[in-house]
Amino acid sequence: MAVIAVTKERRDGETRVATTPDTVKKLIAAGFAVAVETGAGEASSYPDADYAAAGAELCGLDAALAKADILFKVRGPTPEEIAGLKAEAIVVGMLNPHQDKTTLQALAAKGVSAFSMEFVPRITRAQVMDVLSSQANLAGYRAVLEGANAYGKVLPMMMTAAGTVAAAKVFVMGAGVAGLQAIATARRLGAVVTATDVRPAAKEQVESLGAKFIAVEDEEFKAAETAAGYAKEMSAEYQAKQAALVSEHIRKQDIVITTALIPGRPAPRLVSATQVASMRPGSVIVDLAVEQGGNVEGAVAGQVVETGGVKIVGYANLPGRIAADASALYARNLAAFGGLFLTKDGAFAPDFEDEILKAALVTRGGAVVHPALAS
To answer: What is 135-321's CATH topology?
Structure first.
């Protein structure tokens, strides 16, 4: 029987856990044994007793790693964890392979087969394994709450005997999963919401949520989406036209939320220092891309920076600020992915030619094997 091990997350600020008691039951029912490091779920409000009741074996770090045929992680394992693994083990997690080259090389040197969940393909069969969507949904929701908290005023219009308070204006930049959830959340809270994106398909999605779409809709805009549904990096000419439109719009906003990311590239700069300075004192910008360099000039990862009375919120790992739900969704993603390592008869025999496993595989046989990373 193959053993899935889950260890405590040791990266700074990471509060999530890769398996919950609920998914422990599902993994055991599928034919796995599960070993959980003592205290692994504490930061996500999942106590050891719940894991034990679900059927997991609780043990120390060294024992969990020694037992592991598969190691489930949220972030990449530490050097200590990698050293404790069997050479033939499998590692599954959000490995941040484009940026965290050191961990990738260490995994390759150990000889383990490592799968990066960021590379799970966007196909129907893999929807239940899409960690980017599950975590981005929560990030978009939390971004609105963080923005509202920093703003210090109400979001909905309020009519009282003492007078009327106008609704806050919220502008969401980037209408992917996180952006759409931010739009929906801001609308539920009563704000007047506008949004922008370089993908033509986003316009209909934005408007379906009751927000107004803001974009320069020229020929480049019409071709600004890859076959996989990701945004392309736009030309300098388009960026200049869009920046002019956004500059006029942004100065009137109370809360701006930026969500734009390009896989494998630094986050595009969407808001300049000049645009920040144009906003009214008391306004707020929440930068969801701060860990990849940031969409906002002046944003600092892990900090709230105030400039000219405008607050720039740069909290890293927003899903980790809702750790229980973020862990629950992520754990379900991983449980579904782990099922791919079993045959129809329940035997542990990973098919490395399976289209999902092949797309997510980053190291195997002592080398980095993913074509986007091999160079």
So the answer is: Rossmann fold (3.40.50)
